[in-house]
Design goal:
There is one protein chain. The protein has a single domain, classed as Gcn5-related N-acetyltransferase (GNAT) (Aminopeptidase), CATH 3.40.630.30. Strands 1, 2, 3, 4, 5, 6, 7, 8 and 9 form a nine-stranded mixed sheet that branches. The longest helix has 18 residues, at 25-42. It is α+β, with helices and mostly antiparallel strands. A hairpin with an 8-residue loop joins strand 4 and strand 5 (89-96). It contains three helices and nine strands, in the order ββαβββαβαβββ. The chain has helices at residues 25-42, 105-121, 135-139; strands at residues 2-6, 12-19, 58-65, 71-80, 89-96, 126-131, 144-145, 150-152, 155-162.
Length: 163
């Protein structure tokens, strides 16, 4: 599945949604590098990103392709099928490159992820385990708190549901 979104900064993001088995070695490397850059280095959080769920998920990739055809990964999520992480379907590992922030890419990423999840599995509740400081960001996409805050890997989180 592919699509295109134009961001306020006029950077054209091309969206791809791929099962794990369809990720090339280069794409997988760029995906894991971005997740490590943000979740481990930027957030100063030592945790095991490779949690065994990636192979069950579809991966939403937001890329900018330059003139020579080189794709640069700017944003990603993984779409988690119902029953894998929660009873409901889920969107996880929501990440944007630090260099791409400030122009709406995070909101475009969430909108595209919700659209693709519903296209794949039909309209349904979506549960996420969000970092608590991002609650208002997820509220803008229809997610509401469904639990008390909890600690995960030293970072306050909260479960949220989009009905």
């Amino acid at each position: 599945m592919t699509g295109t979104t134009v961001l306020p900064r006029s950077a054209q993001i091309q969206w791809r949604c791929l099962p794990f088995a369809a990720l090339s070695a280069d794409t997988l490397y760029r995906l894991l590098r971005l997740r490590s850059e943000v979740f481990v280095v930027e957030q100063n959080c030592v945790f095991l990103d490779m949690d065994g769920l990636d192979a069950q998920c579809l991966h939403v990739l937001g890329e900018v392709v330059d003139e020579d055809g080189t794709a640069h990964l700017h944003a990603s999520t993984r779409l988690v099928p119902p029953g894998a992480a929660f009873a409901e379907a889920s969107i996880g590992r929501v990440v944007t490159a630090p260099s791409a922030r400030g122009g709406g890419i995070g909101h475009a990423l969430m909108a595209e992820s919700v659209r693709l999840l519903e296209q794949l599995w039909g309209p349904q509740p979506i549960r996420i385990g969000a970092q608590a400081h991002l609650e208002s960001f997820y509220n803008r996409h229809g997610f509401v708190s469904d639990d008390k805050p909890y600690m995960e890997d030293g970072i306050p989180h909260i479960e949220m549901v989009r009905r």
